[in-house]
Design a protein that fits this description.
By secondary structure, this protein is an alpha/beta fold. Helix content is 51%, strand content 9%. The protein has 16 helices and 7 strands. This is Glycerol-3-phosphate dehydrogenase [NAD(P)+].
């Protein structure tokens, strides 16, 4: 496990509690020493006891020695540099698993694409994990679930079989695009929810933005090749609900501070850990424009971050069109056609699988 922040440490605990032999790499020697000797990470998980079997080191070569699966949990914008450092120590056949939810600013690449670009490994060796996973709750062993996604179902299943225990369950799918973009986009909607919360708006406003936000997430992801069903699952809707409503969410907290009138620089200085949603707004909007996808919620978040929109004026779920529009981005006829096609596809799938309807996320 590379990265000893709250999520990296929590996931190392998940793996160790599931019976895996885990070494956690911490950049700071003093943090590695605390985890190794006291089985605590007081900086990021205060009050949480870590498994006795969990080992820690600040030496990257020792952490990666003989590793069959390498889990990476570092700030998304520093991933490329970290991968370059780890590359000489990585076993050629090792699977690399991304726990990050971001888009690289300079390239617009998803985290799995950055891994492939830097390490020059086959995409079948790469997996991503996403879902409603607030680190502190899981570290306290409150039950939850996640999705492990890889273009190789075999790789996804191998990672999922290790990434599970009595309080954490992993499902699998092969929709890497949808799984990753779900984790990225929900951060942006969570910032919007935090903004309206901080501005003093109530549950109706937040529910409207969550619902319309899911539409934006789905339209964006599908335009990039994702399956719409993925955005209705753990990596999309599940993660969106958890991140939008919890005070443990860094993105929600950052948005709330913005809604209360703090400037972006002040918010960044107050946050002790990286807030991925703030860094992803620009790259996501560029990718959306390239595909012709409208994202009014994310656009208004960008304006609040830039200081050109008062947080109290944010209402991206309201339309200014002269004519009433359909709830979905497509017109009713297109929706109807899509519904018919999906129904036919389900029927064909059931025939192929002996009357059973295969799930896209499989346990």
């Amino acid at each position: 496990m590379l990265g000893a922040g709250s999520w990296g440490t929590t996931f190392a605990k998940i793996l160790a509690d599931g019976g895996a032999d885990v070494v956690l790499w911490a950049r700071r020697p003093e943090l590695a020493r605390e985890i190794q000797e006291a089985k605590r990470n007081s900086d990021y998980l205060p009050g949480v006891n870590l498994p006795l079997s969990l080992r820690a080191t600040s030496r990257l070569d020792l952490a990666l020695a003989g590793a069959e699966q390498v889990y990476v949990s570092v700030p998304s914008q520093s991933l490329r540099d970290n991968l370059k450092i780890m590359a000489p120590h990585l076993h050629a056949q090792a699977s690399v698993v991304s726990l990050m939810k971001g888009v690289e600013k300079s390239t617009g690449l998803r985290m799995s694409e950055v891994v492939a670009d830097v390490l020059h490994i086959d995409e079948s060796q790469i997996a991503v994990i996403s879902g409603p996973n607030l680190a502190l709750e899981i570290a306290k062993e409150q039950p939850t679930a996640a999705v492990v996604s890889s273009t190789s179902l075999e790789t996804a299943q191998a990672v999922a079989s290790v990434s599970r225990n009595r309080y954490f369950h992993s499902f699998v799918n092969t929709d890497v695009i949808g799984t990753e973009f779900g984790g990225v986009l929900k951060n942006l909607i969570a910032v919007a929810i935090g903004i309206v919360d901080g501005a003093g708006y109530g549950e109706n406003t937040k529910a409207s933005i969550i619902t319309r936000g899911l539409v934006e997430m789905t339209d964006f992801a599908v335009a990039h090749g994702a399956h719409p069903e993925t955005l209705s699952g753990l990596a999309g809707l599940g993660d969106l609900i958890a991140t939008s409503q919890s005070p443990l969410s860094r993105n929600n907290t950052a948005g709330r501070l913005l809604g209360q009138g703090y400037r972006l620089n002040d918010v960044v200085n107050q946050m002790q850990q990286t807030t991925e949603g703030l860094a992803s707004v620009g790259p996501v909007l560029e990718l959306a424009r390239a595909k012709g996808v409208a994202m009014p919620i994310v656009e208004q978040v960008r304006q609040v971050l830039a200081g050109t929109l008062d947080p109290r004026d944010i209402a991206p779920h309201l339309t200014t069109d002269d004519e009433p529009q359909g709830e979905r981005s497509s017109d009713g006829q297109a929706q109807s056609g899509t519904a018919v096609r999906r129904a036919l596809q389900r029927a064909f799938d059931q025939l192929r699988h002996g009357g059973r309807s295969p799930e896209r996320d499989r346990p």
